[in-house]
Amino acid sequence: MHAGIKEKRELDLALIVSEHDTSAAGVFTTNRCAAAPVTLTKRHIRTGNIRAIITNSGNANACTGVNGMSDARDMAKATAEALGLQANQICVSSTGIIGKPLPMERIRAAIPGLVTRLKPAGGRSAARAILTTDVHVKETGATARIAGKTLTIGGIAKGAGMIHPNMATMLGYLATDALIETSALQRALKSAVDASFNAITIDGETSTNDMVLCLANGHARNSIIKAGTSSMDEFQRFLTDGCVDLAKQIVRDGEGTTKVIQVIVQHAKTSRNAKTIAEAIGTSPLVKTAMFGQDPNWGRFMAVIGRARVPIKPALISILFDDVAVVEAGMGTGVESERSAKTVLRRQEFPITLDLGIGHESHRIWTTDLSPAYVALNAHYPT
To answer: Which of 72, 307, 323, 339 is most buried by a 10 A CB count?
Structure first.
């Protein structure tokens, strides 16, 4: 609903509720200026049996001191009272402008009405209510046969700028009717986030409010999923697929984005080396602007690989734009291949493979180009 947090009459407050007790897991920002809702939700997750998530856009409640923490607690308390729950059963999440106090009188007044609006088909409205600079809502949903039952997972997310691994400026909420041990759910969510939300970058920035939460309420009545079992492996793939779907939607909706690029680094000495190079490529302004200009300037890629401070042998490096090799044995393959590569770069989505030729490890991320629209938007973002 619109609670009056945003000046424009846009949806800015959402509530997600489970009718049953849950196992709950969370992954949170690594930013040391973490917002009050992050700190509070971390505490509540540890108590177990989360039943609801109250989340707002338009105001981050970050860098707001003791009053900000009091407001986060107040949001949890007011939500709990309206639902007949305990405050520590509520997760609180906020996104938007940093440094401004929340309009708590408006939020308190809105929460009872928000509860009356709860409905099974409310996911699309909730997805819209958490947006900031996003253009598109981000949703995912799927079913799978696991542990003798058909399990369902659904999720929503927001994010378009300040996106980079270890968490990005994003919120993600997933819900499943699976019956799963809490420790197994936490492990599964962490692994899924590493393969998805922590494998995307738009501008190399991370923020103060980022979190991904997953609630599992066991309503499917499956055999309980435990770590180290085949059911756990299947659930892990199920959850990861949902997270990857949402993460790719975030990249596609990146501020000013015209290209979505999958960067694949292979045959590195270590997985860490592969990750380092992938992220260096994915955050390089020179690379990203070349991608916007549809310029197959492979020299920029070689330069970034060389400055990433990981072991390489330049004479073994190959670079491919989709299936077009522009570099082999550390040297360009000629004008014709560059012409073919230019055709690849005209597409909205394509892979770029960097083959180091010195090992067996690999890593992939999704990144974007860098356009004048990104600069224009962030030059005038309100404070």
So the answer is: 72
Q: Quick check: is 169 catalytic?
A: yes
pLDDT of residue 370: 87
Q: How far apart are CA 281 and CA 82, in angstroms?
A: 48
pLDDT at 110 over 90: yes
Q: Where are the domains of the chain?
A: 13-252, 260-379
Question: What confidence tens digit (pLDDT) does each residue in 147-199 have?
Answer: 889 999 999 999 865 555 555 457 999 999 999 999 999 999 999 999 998 88
The candidate with the shortest Cα–Cα distance to 15, out of 250, 220, 215, 247, is: 215
Secondary structure, 3-state, the chain:
CCCCCCCCCCCCEEEEECCCCCEEEEEECCCCCCCHHHHHHHHHHHHCCCCEEEEEEEECCCCCHHHHHHHHHHHHHHHHHHHCCCHHHEEEEEEEECCCCCCHHHHHHHHHHHHHCCCCCCHHHHHHHCCCCCCCCEEEEEEEEECCEEEEEEEEEECCCCCCCCCCCCEEEEEECCCECHHHHHHHHHHHHHCCHHHECCCCCCCCCCEEEEEECCCCCCCCECCCCHHHHHHHHHHHHHHHHHHHHHHHCCCCCCCEEEEEEEEECCHHHHHHHHHHHHHCHHHHHHHHCCCCCHHHHHHHHHHCCCCCCHHHCEEEECCEEEEECCEECCHHHHHHHHHHHCCCEEEEEEECCCCCEEEEEEEECCCHHHHHHHHCCCC
Mean pLDDT of 262-269: 97
Q: Which of 140, 169, 367, 368 is catalytic?
A: 169
Give CATH superfamily name and number for 13-252. Answer: L-amino peptidase D-ALA esterase/amidase (3.60.70.12)
* Lateral strand order in the sheet of 13-17: 13-17, 52-59, 90-97
